Structure formats: C-alpha cells, structure tokens
Amino acid sequence: MSKMLRMAAGVFFFLFAVALSSAGAGSDAAVVEHTFVVTQVRMRHLCNDTLVTVVNGQFPGPALEATEGDTVVVHVVNESPHGITIHWHGVKQRLSCWADGAGMVTQCPIQPNTTFTYRFEVGDQVGTLWWHAHVSSLRATLHGIIIIRPKSGAYPFLKPDMDVPVIISEWWQRDLIKVDKNFSTGGNFDDNPAAAAINGKLGDLYNCSGIIEDNFVLDVEPGKTYLLRLVNAALFSEYYFKVAGHKLTVVGSDANYVRPYTTDVIAVGAGETIDVLMVADAPPCQYYMAALANQPPPPDPQIPVFASRALIQYTNISSNHAARHSCGKEPLMPDMPSQHDTITTVYFHGNLTGLPGHPLLPQIRGPVHEHLYLALGKGSMCTDRNKTSCKRGGNPESFEVAYINNVSFHLPEKTSLLEARYYGRTMNNSDHNWNSGVPVEDLPSKPPRAFNYTDNALIPVAGNVKLEELEPTRKATMTRRFRYNTTVEVVFQSTATMQSDSNPMHLHGHDFFVLAHGHGNYDARRDVKSYNLVDPPMKNTVQVPRLGWAAIRFVADNPGAWFMHCHFEFHIAMGMAAVFEVENGPTLEMSLPPPPLDLPKCTQHE
Ligand SMILES: *[C@@H]1O[C@H](CO)[C@@H](O)[C@H](O)[C@H]1NC(C)=O
Ligand SMILES: *[C@@H]1O[C@H](CO)[C@@H](O)[C@H](O)[C@H]1NC(C)=O
Ligand SMILES: *[C@@H]1O[C@H](CO)[C@@H](O)[C@H](O)[C@H]1NC(C)=O
Ligand SMILES: *[C@@H]1O[C@H](CO)[C@@H](O)[C@H](O)[C@H]1NC(C)=O
Ligand SMILES: *[C@@H]1O[C@H](CO)[C@@H](O)[C@H](O)[C@H]1NC(C)=O
Ligand SMILES: *[C@@H]1O[C@H](CO)[C@@H](O)[C@H](O)[C@H]1NC(C)=O
Ligand SMILES: *[C@@H]1O[C@H](CO)[C@@H](O)[C@H](O)[C@H]1NC(C)=O
Ligand SMILES: *[C@@H]1O[C@H](CO)[C@@H](O)[C@H](O)[C@H]1NC(C)=O
Ligand SMILES: *[C@@H]1O[C@H](CO)[C@@H](O)[C@H](O)[C@H]1NC(C)=O
Ligand SMILES: *[C@@H]1O[C@H](CO)[C@@H](O)[C@H](O)[C@H]1NC(C)=O
Ligand SMILES: *[C@@H]1O[C@H](CO)[C@@H](O)[C@H](O)[C@H]1NC(C)=O
Ligand SMILES: [Cu+2]
Asked: Ligand 7 — pocket residues by CB below 6 A?
C-alpha cells in the first residue's frame, strides 16, 4: 500500500479510533487471582505416554482473563522437579520488571517445592497475550492465553459474540530439558516435535495404529461473530492459518489494535498473537480450520511437515435447513499455502497498520537517540573453551552457537542480572571473575565486520568454506543500557549464516513500532525512506524476514532489565539474545521499586 493510501485510510479510520477507551487503572480495577500448580503428568498421544510439565494438569494451561487496568496475582506452586519461571509474554510490566519471569534475567527460577507470587497490572493493553515458562523448552506444554478486554466494553470493530482462543503449539515426545541442552551445545537437527496441535488437540491429521487424534471443535451459530485469538506457542515454527469457506478480518496483534484487514490467510510467528474476526456466514456445514508450519526451501536443512486442524460446525440449524445446503460428507478443508512459501508472511505482516493517534507516535517521529543495527547469525566456539583456535565447520572440536553482532548470549549463572544490577554487582567488560557477580558487556551497535549478510552462498551446507571463515564467535552476557525516555531504533538483519530462517524477535517490557521491513541487506540511505511513521503497527514480536531486515523504534520508558531475543527456542538456546537495560527516570513514579520479598533465592540451578 502506498503512503498516500495509508494516510487517507488513516484519516478515515480515525472515526473508529476516537471510540477507543483510553481509561487507565481506575478505582474499579479488579484483582484477577489464580493459583498455578506446576506438575509433571503423563499424557497419551500417538501411542505414547509422554511425561510433560503443565499447569493445573492442563495442556494448554488455564486462561487468564482480565480487563484493562486490572491487577493480576498468580501464586505459582512448583511441584515439578525443574526450576521454573513464568513469563507474561507481552505484558508491559510497567515498574514491575521483577514480575517479568525471564529466568536469570529478572529472577532466579522457582525451585522445586517452593512458591512465588507474581503480581502485575495489565495496564492499558487490550487484546491477546499469553504466558509461558521461560526456563528452557518446558514452555512447549507450560503455556496459556491471556485475554484482556477493554474497560469500556467497546471495541473499534464489530463487537464479537464470543471469544475463541486458538493456541497453536507443538507436541513433543522428548525430554525437553535435554532438547534445550542439545541446542545450547550446538544444535541437533534430529530434535523435532512429534506433531502440531490446536488448543492441545493434535487433530485428525494424526493417527497411530488406527487411533485418530481428537480435533478441537468449535460450534458456531449462523450469523454470529467470533473473535479468534491466535497464539503461536510453538518452539520452532511460524504457522499459516486458514478457515475453509470463511474470510478473516485481522483486528489486533500482540494486544494492540490494528486497522481491520480482511484476508483468507493469517501468518503467525513464534511468540506472536493475532486477533481475527470470523463471521459465521457460510452455508451451515462443517469446515476445517488448519495451521501449517512453514520453512525455507532447500538448501536449508528440512524438518518434517507439521500441520494440525480443528473443526468448525454450525449448530442450532433445523435439519431441513441443513438439507437445503448440499454439505459434503467430509468437512471442507482450506487450500493451504505451500510449506515453502516464505513470501505470504512478508505480505501478511506488511499489511498490518496501527490505529493513528498513539500517544508515543510523536516521540518516535522525533530525534532518535540510539541506533542499533543487529545482525542475527551463527558462529562457532571451541569445545575446549580455553581455546580460540580449533577445527570448525562441523568438526567436533567446535560447536555452533547463534549470535547477535558476533557475540552469543550467555545467561548469568549465579544471580539474575536484574538483582545484580539492583544491588550493584555487575562488572563491566574487564573483570571476568565469575564468582563475585555478573560480568556484562555492551551489546555492539553494529556488526564488527560487515559481510554480505544475505548471500545465499552462506547458507550452512556441508563443506561451506566461506561460512567457516565467519564462524569464530564468543559468549558474553551482552546488555545495552538506555537512559530513561531514550528513543531507540533497532534494525534487525537476518543473515544466511543461521540458515535462511526468518527470526521472530521479541522484546520484553515495551511494545515497539514496526516501521518497515525488506529483503536483502539493510541500507539506511535507501530504506529509511520506506519507514511508515504515519500508522505503524505496535508489537512486541517482529517477524524479521528470511534473508531480510526489519526496523523498529521504541521509547525506553520502563526501568528494568528486559530480555530481547528470538522466539525460536533453538535460536534462543543457542544464544540469539541480549538484554536492554533501562535506567530509572527522575522521579519515583519513573523508578523501579525494590524486589518483592519472596523473590526466589538464587540457589544452584540446573
Ligand atoms: C518435593 O516434595 C515431594 C513431596 O514431599 C518430594 O517427594 C520431593 O522429593 C521433593 N522434591 C525436591 C526436589 O525436593
Ligand atoms: C511412539 O510410539 C510409536 C508406536 O508405538 C513408536 O514407534 C515411537 O518410537 C514412539 N515415539 C516416541 C518418541 O516415544
Ligand atoms: C540430543 O542429541 C543427541 C546426539 O545427537 C541425540 O542422540 C539425543 O536423542 C538428543 N536428545 C534428545 C532428548 O533429543
Ligand atoms: C493414518 O496415518 C497415515 C500416515 O501417518 C495415513 O496414511 C492414514 O491415511 C491415516 N489413517 C487415517 C484413518 O487417518
Ligand atoms: C443453540 O443451542 C444451544 C444448545 O442447545 C443453546 O444453549 C442455545 O441457546 C441455542 N442458541 C440459539 C440461538 O438458539
Ligand atoms: C499486502 O498484501 C497484498 C496481497 O497479498 C500484497 O500484494 C501486498 O504487497 C501487501 N502489502 C505490503 C505492504 O506488504
Ligand atoms: C581451562 O582453564 C581453566 C582456568 O584457567 C582451568 O581450570 C580448566 O581446567 C581449563 N579447562 C581445560 C579443558 O583445559
Ligand atoms: C559499561 O561502562 C561504560 C562506560 O562506563 C558505560 O557507558 C556502559 O553503559 C556500561 N555498560 C554496561 C552494560 O553496564
Ligand atoms: C567475530 O569475533 C571473533 C572473535 O571473537 C573474530 O575472530 C571473528 O572474525 C568475528 N567475525 C565476524 C564475522 O565479525
Ligand atoms: C549479496 O549476495 C546476494 C545473493 O547471493 C547477491 O545477489 C548480492 O549481489 C550480494 N550483494 C553484494 C553487495 O555483494
Ligand atoms: C520524554 O521525551 C519527550 C520527547 O523528547 C518529552 O516530551 C517528554 O517530556 C519526556 N518525558 C520524560 C518523563 O522525561
Ligand atoms: Cu531466530
């Protein structure tokens, strides 16, 4: 869409936007209280009993339903044998960084047989978010939806008759702690899920010895409007989503409204949420909704095809009514894009625009104080960590890691970064005594060495000499400190070294405006011109196109230590992460309060 068109549409849409509630936490804000008991249970799918870690015995876990401005209180009782933290994905956690639940960044894990209570406000956010474990891959089954409804009860679109969570996830039949270890020590492409799932149901595309897996079933009534709240909770993949026979209208993403956009295919990146309206206006038959994982084509290494489907059936229809429509014997299946289609997602995300009039828009149009150009790639380290020289290119003398600007993120081991910072126990660059605190380094503003980031010839295939030359990398706890109220621009550059994957980059503690994305190497002189400063969508996760880049801006106005990472589990486990630290502002209302008294102690953790 051209800028002119966007602007015209923006003005038109403003009529709706003024209806938006801007009510903050009023006196009638409620407290939403839950107890999450984390246990291991056996669940049977595909002829296998698998031990999984879940909340309250459920997969997916319980939904948190709140209204804008409410306070959420969750008592986590850890009856599992693993250290656990729970991250409230996308909740801005204004002045409550201690409750962000990023393991070893904002807190040490909740040890087995101990409890911790998370308390935070959902503030002025409206829409769909989710919660998940943030210590290793356990989030595969330890997750659930967060629904935040507008305080005014008014939506800037057709009021839905019903909310429908649609959580896309993966079913793993492996020890996920070991899977994480495998990835953090070099990656292992045999570690794949067994199936995809929708709302915990694998669906009838899967069977084992003739036992067909259950579908999630959605009963709809003719003429009613459904708000499908899509969450991609998968560890690995971006998914395409379609519903046979129905148009979908995207109205929100990451708990921010977007200008309504009607399409028949949705792309939802790992960690992302998409809200879509679906009107039950088709002939009253049965329809599949389907989710299909996409992946770059060869020469990238291929994983199996993952897809899951659920059923939509019309109810409350008289039998002669049904007879008048010649419904087929089988439910109608949507035509899915190819699993190797990597352009539909770029178009889908390119068509998302925000509502005009966001209070932070003037500021991100103004001076940018910090520019970061972050190359997301792959390097290698010597297996003997005392060495810097060893055989690379897949030789066992080295192992592969992911990096940002040629440094692979290392989680603090003894104490969380936020506590270390709060109590003044961080060390800057030179002092590497691991016992007395957390050594941190500055995240570099740009890659130390420029190369053709998106050169296809760098895709890792056996015996790639060109790639080996780029490999040597090291590990560090990289952070970047921002003064309160700094305007930050980040350009993420996907590189061919980390396969030609797209990278869903997620920032804690802040939403950001997505200004532009493109293919190839970012070139400021050319690409700044394409920035949408009129009505950019606001997100917490940006899909950085494969062999391409994405530009975001945000205002660093929430003091704390905020994890910034790729939401592909194997990329984060391999080190594609950093921390953005935001300093306190000039007043108490702009400063991080002290930690809660029951914040878990940092004993040894796995
Ligand atoms: C947790 O408590 C249970 C029941 O008392 C006990 O069986 C288990 O060993 C404890 N786990 C740990 C890690 O202490
Ligand atoms: C699951 O069960 C099938 C059939 O019994 C078996 O072939 C397969 O190895 C099992 N997979 C896992 C991961 O346990
Ligand atoms: C981890 O990797 C090893 C070596 O490639 C493999 O044998 C093992 O099955 C993997 N573990 C899990 C839990 O996937
Ligand atoms: C069961 O799965 C196999 C392949 O996994 C497929 O060929 C077969 O059609 C399926 N059967 C049913 C009844 O869905
Ligand atoms: C549809 O059927 C359900 C279950 O019988 C009933 O609860 C509901 O009120 C019906 N809705 C309408 C519009 O008839
Ligand atoms: C929006 O989607 C259409 C249709 O898929 C596509 O042609 C167009 O390029 C997209 N716009 C942007 C800005 O990506
Ligand atoms: C690496 O160096 C440290 C300290 O210099 C030493 O304690 C350790 O044994 C060395 N590791 C190996 C594998 O040589
Ligand atoms: C490290 O020290 C420099 C100079 O004192 C400072 O500018 C920078 O913000 C510090 N970095 C971190 C991560 O603390
Ligand atoms: C990355 O850093 C290492 C040193 O840690 C250096 O040897 C290598 O050349 C750098 N590579 C790139 C691509 O910047
Ligand atoms: C980078 O690599 C791509 C793909 O191989 C190629 O088309 C492009 O010309 C290269 N760019 C530069 C600046 O060399
Ligand atoms: C933040 O910066 C903006 C733009 O420079 C300014 O208008 C605003 O007053 C600042 N807010 C604080 C709390 O410093
Ligand atoms: Cu990634």
From this structure: 384, 386
